[in-house]
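User: quick one, sequence for these C-alpha cells?
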C-alpha cells in the first residue's frame, strides 16, 4: 500500500500523512486508530502505537478467567461441545491450548507427556516427532500449511514469540509423505490425514474468530475445528464417541 493509497482509505490528505510519517506533525489518537484500522493492525499493536504517540491505550486486555470474559468462555464451551464428536480446540494468540472438547483425545493419544504439560502448544504438539507427527500421513504437506500460516501471523503481528515458535517448528523433521491422493477433498483444501490404529482418518479444518473484538485477549482467540472429510472418518468418530459413552 502506497502512502497515497493509505491516505485515501484513512480519509486524510497525503501531505498530512507525510508530515506524520516524518515527524513534522503529531497525529491525533483518532488518526492513529484510523491508520491502524486500514493497515489491519492487531489490537495490541494499536495500543503500542497510541503509547508511542503519547496517548493512553484504547483496548483493554482482560484475563481469560476473569468475570469480564465469562460470557465469552460460556459461548466457546457451547461451540466446542456442540462440535462433538468431532475435535475442536480454543487457542490463544500464541497457539496455546485454552479449552478442548473430549474428541481431541484422538490427537493427543500417544503423545509424549512433555508435550501435554501446560501450557500445551497445539502447533508443537502437531509437528513434534514425539507428538502427532508420526501419525500424520501427509506430514510434509500439513507441516508446510501450518508453517506458512504461522509465518504470516508472525509477520502480521510482529510478535517475537510467534517468530521464535516458527523457527523452532521449522527445525522439526518433515517426514516422507505417502503418495498424494486425487480425491475431491485434496483438490480444494489441504486435509489432515491421520492414522488411528489401522484406520486412515481424513479431516477438514476451519478457524473461527470473534468478529468484533475490542479486547486484546479476545482478538487473539480462535476456535480450530476439525470436520470429517469422508464417510469413513465420520463413522469412525461416531463409533469412538459411542465407545467412550459406554465406558463412561
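Assistant:
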Amino acid at each position: 500500500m502506497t502512502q497515497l493509497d493509505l491516505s485515501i482509505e484513512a480519509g486524510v490528505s497525503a501531505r498530512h500523512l507525510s508530515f506524520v510519517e516524518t515527524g513534522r506533525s503529531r497525529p491525533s489518537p483518532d488518526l492513529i486508530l484510523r491508520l491502524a484500522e486500514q493497515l489491519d493492525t492487531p489490537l495490541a499493536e494499536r495500543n503500542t502505537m497510541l503509547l508511542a504517540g503519547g496517548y493512553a491505550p484504547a483496548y483493554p486486555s482482560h484475563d481469560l478467567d476473569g468475570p469480564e470474559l465469562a460470557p465469552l468462555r460460556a459461548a466457546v464451551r457451547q461451540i466446542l461441545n456442540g462440535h462433538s464428536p468431532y475435535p475442536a480446540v480454543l487457542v490463544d494468540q500464541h497457539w496455546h491450548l485454552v479449552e478442548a472438547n473430549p474428541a481431541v483425545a484422538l490427537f493427543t493419544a500417544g503423545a509424549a507427556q512433555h508435550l501435554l504439560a501446560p501450557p500445551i502448544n497445539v502447533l508443537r504438539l502437531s509437528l513434534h516427532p514425539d507428538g502427532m507427527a508420526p501419525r500424520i500421513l501427509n506430514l510434509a504437506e500439513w507441516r508446510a500449511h501450518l508453517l506458512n500460516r504461522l509465518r504470516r501471523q508472525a509477520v502480521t503481528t510482529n510478535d517475537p514469540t510467534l517468530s521464535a515458535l516458527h523457527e523452532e517448528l521449522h527445525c522439526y523433521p518433515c517426514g516422507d509423505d505417502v503418495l498424494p491422493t486425487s480425491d475431491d477433498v485434496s483438490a480444494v483444501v489441504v486435509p489432515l490425514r491421520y492414522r488411528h490404529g489401522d484406520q486412515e482418518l481424513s479431516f477438514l479444518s476451519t478457524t473461527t474468530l470473534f468478529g468484533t473484538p475490542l479486547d486484546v485477549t479476545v482478538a487473539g482467540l480462535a476456535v480450530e475445528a476439525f470436520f470429517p472429510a469422508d464417510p469413513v472418518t465420520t463413522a469412525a468418530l461416531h463409533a469412538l464417541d459411542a465407545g467412550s459413552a459406554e465406558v463412561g
